[in-house]
Structures are given as structure tokens and as C-alpha cells.
Design goal:
Chains A, B: Residues 17-116 form the SnoaL-like domain. Chains A, B: This is Steroid delta-isomerase. Two copies of one chain form a homodimer. Chain A has 129 residues and is α+β, with helices and mostly antiparallel strands. Chain A is built from three helices and eight strands; from the N terminus they run H-H-E-E-H-E-E-E-E-E-E. The first copy, chain A, has helices at 3-26, 29-33, 54-65, and strands at residues 36-43, 51-52, 68-79, 82-93, 96-100, 103-108, 114-120, 127-128.
Chain lengths: 129, 129
């Protein structure tokens, strides 16, 4: 891989991460899942049973359709085909507002689609506003 | 695994991450490598050829023996047997001082030893002070 090919890959990954956070905030499960490769895996939180494939991943994101979310990227690091990013999600569910700042770890294919996602956070990281 | 077993695991991982950053700052390669399991893997940066096993990992950290480093934990997230943490390393090498804030992703065995490490950062993230 040449330097410019590597730069282009990094740029594709960066674009997908931003699109991911925008899609989570917009809250349409199918649109979020469309950023994943067909046979991608999702572990949220890391260590839980992985969800495999687009249908299972879409199902997972149905949860965000019932809530109002805003997202903010805090720190993004990219190396090779891996991204790790620290971000804030503020969730309004009924009268309650929750805030959490996970670190997600994603890998990507050559088209910049997410091939795996592992969300690193614990319930104790969640704050009620 | 009971809740208290899970809490104990989280605490062991937290202790190892702090010990890791302290050991990197202290700068003795063998002491850093001692925090890894015997057959651990290390990818720094993520996507590079993994170093496998204690000897190769010790060799990797010889680099920190030639420089003066300070470390600071910025954010630590733990889920199951995975930790992701954002930290700052300030390195003095001769007259130059460099600063970088990677996100490292580690997995751990039941004794809290590191079984894999992937450092997510790019040369462009490095700043000269």
C-alpha cells in the first residue's frame, strides 16, 4: 500500500466514523446498520454476545429509534484499518436524560464499511443529568 | 460470573492499566513486559506486524529505555475483559520533546495480565513541544 492509498483509507475511516455518529443522532436503525459490512460483528458492550450480520445489527439499533440522542466526537485515533474513538452520547428517554462517553473500537474494510465494532463502557460510566 | 467477580476483574484490569503507564514512565522494558501474559500479542501501531510473546514484547519496549517519558491517563473504559484508554505520553529524546495521546486497546486474562495490546495512533497525531 502506498502512502496515498493509506491516507485515502484513513480518510474513508474518518468519514465513516463521523457518518456513524451522525446516524446514531438521527436515529434510524437501518441507516446506522448500512454503515456496516454485510457480515460485520457488533459487541456492545465488549465481552457481550456478538451480534453478527446486518439484520442482527439493525435490530440492535432499534433501541435508538425510541429515544432522542445527540452525539459528539471527543477523540478519534486511526491506525491501519482500526479506529478507536471517545465520544459522548446524550440520550433523552421520556423525562430522563442520560450521558455516557464510551470508547468504541472499530475495524473497516477497503470501502470504509465497519467490519467489527466493540463498545468499551460500563453501566457505572453512565450519568443521569 | 457473579457481580462481585466481575467487579474484581474490572479492578484487576484498572490496576494493570495504571501499573502499565507507571512502568512506561519508569522506563524499564522488562518491568513493562512483566505485565503481559507469556503468549501475549502487541500491535503498535494497530495494523503493524504483531509481536508475540514476552521476549519480543520486552524487545519492543527497549525503545523507552533510551528516552525520558512521562505518562498521564486521560480516559479509561473497561468492559468485560477489554480496556480502552486514552493517555498522554511526553517523551524527551535529546533536545526534543514529543507529545502523543494514543488510544490503546488491551485484553486481559483472569489474573489481570495483558493478553493483547493494540495501540491506535498515527505519526500525524504526534506533536513537537
Amino acid at each position: 500500500m502506498t502512502v496515498s492509498e493509506a491516507d485515502a483509507r484513513t480518510q474513508r475511516i474518518r468519514t465513516t466514523v463521523h457518518a456513524y455518529l451522525d446516524a446514531v443522532a438521527a436515529g434510524v436503525a437501518a441507516d446506522i446498520a448500512a454503515l456496516y459490512a454485510d457480515d460485520a460483528t457488533l459487541e456492545d458492550p465488549a465481552g457481550s454476545e456478538p451480534r453478527v450480520g446486518r439484520a442482527a445489527i439493525t435490530e440492535f439499533y432499534k433501541g435508538v429509534e425510541a429515544t432522542e440522542n445527540t452525539t459528539e466526537l471527543l477523540t478519534l485515533r486511526i491506525a491501519g484499518s482500526t479506529a478507536a474513538f471517545h465520544f459522548r452520547v446524550v440520550t433523552k428517554a421520556g423525562e430522563q436524560t442520560y450521558e455516557i462517553e464510551p470508547i468504541d473500537v472499530m475495524t473497516f474494510d477497503d470501502e470504509g464499511r465497519i467490519t467489527s465494532m466493540r463498545a468499551v463502557w460500563a453501566p457505572s460510566d453512565m450519568r443521569v443529568r
